[in-house]
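User: Predict the structure for this protein chain, please.
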Amino acid sequence: MASVRESKKACAVNPLKMSQPLGACYAFLGLHNTMPMMHGSQGCTSFGLVLLVRHFKEAIPMQTTAMNEVSTILGGMDNIEQALLNIKKRANPALIAIASTGLTETKGDDVDGYLRLIRAKHGETLAGTEVVYVSTPDYVGAFQDGWAAAVKAVVDAFSEPVTQRVAGRVGVLPGAHLTPADLEELRELIEAFGLQAVMVPDISRSLDGHIPEDFTPTTLGGATLDDIRSLAACQHVIAVGEQMRPALDSLAARSGVPVTLFERLSGLTAVDALVALLMRLSGKPAPARLKRQRGQLQDAMLDGHFHLGGKRVAIGAEPDLLFALASVTSEMGADVVAAVTTTHSPVLEKVPAVEVLIGDLEDLELGAVGCDLLLTHAHGRQSATRLGIPLFRVGIPQFDRIGAAHQLSIGYRGTRDLIFQLANTFIANMHAHGPEDWPLPAEAIAAARGGTAGACNSGGSCSCSGVTEDIVVPIIPAR
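Assistant: Here is the predicted structure, written as structure tokens:
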């Protein structure tokens, strides 16, 4: 069991974490025909917008209430009112999802009260568009906290109790650490047993890099409001990541739907647990292709442990992603020397490391001295360069690579590919022996010069004293 410690530095140096409002808007991007909006200054929204655009290389819909000095002091109701009316007129989304920021949280805006007044005043104008609000102050918590709060707010706002369950329908509440490719893999796993997956939110349908047939100013896909309302009617609902426990518990309490939380879906035992649940829900055995994929993972583990065993790794990531990565690398025989994360979570005590530090990339760099590999997002590239070790990019943001949305690390196939990528990173950065690693003895060098070791044949015309450099002499095979 790891001990969890929080850094007490006066400031963050090269920050590791991202804010709650950004995590909430990221979750809203997984909802169909939605316009995420930050209640704060234009700069807050612009920063998050640019970060997501650079990571996904896609157009990201996001709006702001554009608070300034005066509106912050007097209150932001007018700004929210005008923003809602403008968005309704120009984009007509099915949902406008509002996330607060540190600016308006510090002021203490009663956004829920504002929305009641605005609905009473503009009910007909806003008809057909739902509005949901989530409190996400960016001076506490981190990215996955914002995602978790947004999902819980959406579930509480739209999920409806039912009297009957729909057999074969499985609800999924995924964590922020799962990529669009991860969600697609999870859907395929569920559908392999003849079950129907309902994911909320579903970034695999909105941020997977597809090109739409027509332009839309809102999100390009994702879970619909009907999907959210039908969660309570599912035969079973699963959640992935400890961060999703509040939303899952809230759904279970409201509807009585059976639920299961998986702390991770990377690793052989973790995927086996999911497959066992799906077999029980469907009443069917595992398909042959899943058995084959499991065998491929076992073979990958056998092959990969030669390259991962005994290696020292340092990981900096959100709590649930940190736990998943540390668990897989540890199961492969690597030693997690440094583990740094962004926010508190009950899962941190289960990370296979001596200590987990809630800190920044400077803390990670100091702890990674002497390590063989650094795992974190793209902002860790300078640390990896200074340490002289390779960087394995995980999480958000990855603005210096393409295809981040298609990184797969869950399920049998995802875990297999993760092991291969880690092993290949070590192989690619092994020291390649060359001629300079085997310098010729002094006698061979002297013979090549036509003299003896330690002697100079220049007749005193050069300034050397004996042999001052290694000369590589090509060996010509005898005929």
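The chain has four domains: 3-10+293-428, 20-140, 166-285, 435-479.
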